[in-house]
Design a protein that fits this description.
oxidoreductase activity, Dihydrodipicolinate Reductase, domain 2, globular, alpha/beta, Oxidoreductase, 9 helices, NAD, 17 strands
């Protein structure tokens, strides 16, 4: 990987989310998308033509392509680890959509194999690298709320079956509101507090089946095999606790609620599923009956899907850790597994893995210039 030559990127998975990745990566001078692959080669070809990518084909053809140095893995969660491991074995760095895997052993094996081969694994979400969350992390680092001691988060809706034409996979093991949306909130929390030490949770599934609402399959039923309403509590190794709701059962939509309580104030962080948003604070002191949110200035790049790829490419060149790392993805996976295990057993579950909390991105960092 040379210092100035763009890194060749190959996609495996040409579904809905590939559009936004392709649109943003085209704006970054560090990388060049050279190939798109999918088990549906017709879909891969259509995406390649739409975005001006010269090569399309099967996943195996992408892995064998000599100009692909880094694979963007946008497959379904159940095969994330399998596809990422194949890319590592082909000598490619990997950026994968979340989660890193659906079981801890597979994710752990992937991270270990990459380290043995001197390759990098990056894991979504990279929304935490955008202006919204990074401005919040910089505000916390400069002491705006004192010492963070607690957090509350909420993600509540009726679920993706109300809009997605093929929602079945959202309700299979490795998905559900915890595995699908949890990484945005949990990755933000570990960036604030560091490693999770314990998890306890309650959850339920209101109905064993759901019905497709949108698209050609409208009216088709499919099974629900995961909890769809979850209350989760975390205790962090370095101190602090959090309480979260992850629900696809709520007629009241509440998205992107992340509030960090500190010894000197409470910070409302922008939606961690987005790259920007309002950053607000309530400071300690004064009459609590007259409290009003104060807007804090956000700074830094907004960005979009693919920021994690750019940070990883630059980290390789600079010989430093990248921020949306496989280790953080693995820790978040273990935390989600602990949440589901606590639901099953009714017990508090320990989280054994540990991560280094990344430093906030400097406000003057940009992916648009070398």
């Amino acid at each position: 990987m040379s210092e100035h030559h763009p890194v060749g990127v190959g996609f495996i998975g040409a579904g809905m989310i590939s559009d936004t990745y392709l649109e943003h990566l085209a704006q970054f001078p560090d990388v060049e998308v050279v190939a798109i692959g999918d088990i549906d080669t017709v879909r891969a070809k259509a995406q390649a033509e739409k975005h001006g990518v010269p090569v399309s084909g099967s996943p195996d053809e992408i892995l064998a392509h000599p100009d692909v140095e880094l694979v963007v893995n946008l497959t379904i969660p159940a095969v994330h680890a399998e596809v990422s491991l194949a890319a590592i074995d082909a000598g490619k760095h990997v950026w994968s959509e979340k989660p890193i895997a659906v079981d801890f052993a597979s994710g752990q094996g992937l991270v270990k194999r990459a380290a043995e081969k001197g390759l990098r694994v990056g894991i979504a979400p990279d929304t935490v690298l955008g202006r919204g969350v990074q401005s919040a992390l910089r505000a916390i680092a400069r002491g705006e709320i004192g010492q963070p001691i607690g957090a509350s988060t909420a993600m509540m809706s009726l679920g993706p079956d109300k809009w997605h034409p093929n929602p079945d996979f959202f309700f299979l093991p490795g998905a559900g509101p915890v595995f699908d949306m949890g990484p945005y909130y949990l990755t933000t929390l570990v960036n604030v507090f560091g490693s999770v030490a314990k998890a306890s949770a309650f959850g339920l599934t209101s109905t064993p089946t759901r019905t497709v609402v949108a698209g050609d399959r409208a009216g088709a039923e499919f099974p629900v095999l995961v909890p769809t309403h979850v209350n989760a509590n975390l205790e962090f190794e370095g101190g602090g606790t959090s309480s979260s709701i992850f629900s696809w059962e709520s007629p009241l939509m509440r998205m992107g609620v992340v509030e960090i309580t500190g010894t000197e104030g409470t910070l409302s962080i922008p939606d961690p599923n987005m790259f920007e948003g309002p950053l607000r604070i309530i400071r300690a002191g004064g009459d609590p009956r007259e409290q009003q949110w104060e807007e804090l200035e956000s700074d830094g790049v907004v960005g979009g899907r693919g920021l994690g790829v750019i940070d990883m490419v630059r980290a390789i060149r600079e010989d430093r850790p990248h921020r949306a790392s496989g280790e953080i993805g693995l820790h978040v996976l273990e935390t989600m597994i602990a949440i589901e295990r606590s639901i099953e057993t009714g017990e508090t579950v320990a989280v054994e893995s540990r991560i280094e909390r990344p430093a906030p991105i400097p406000a003057d960092w940009t992916p648009y210039e070398l």
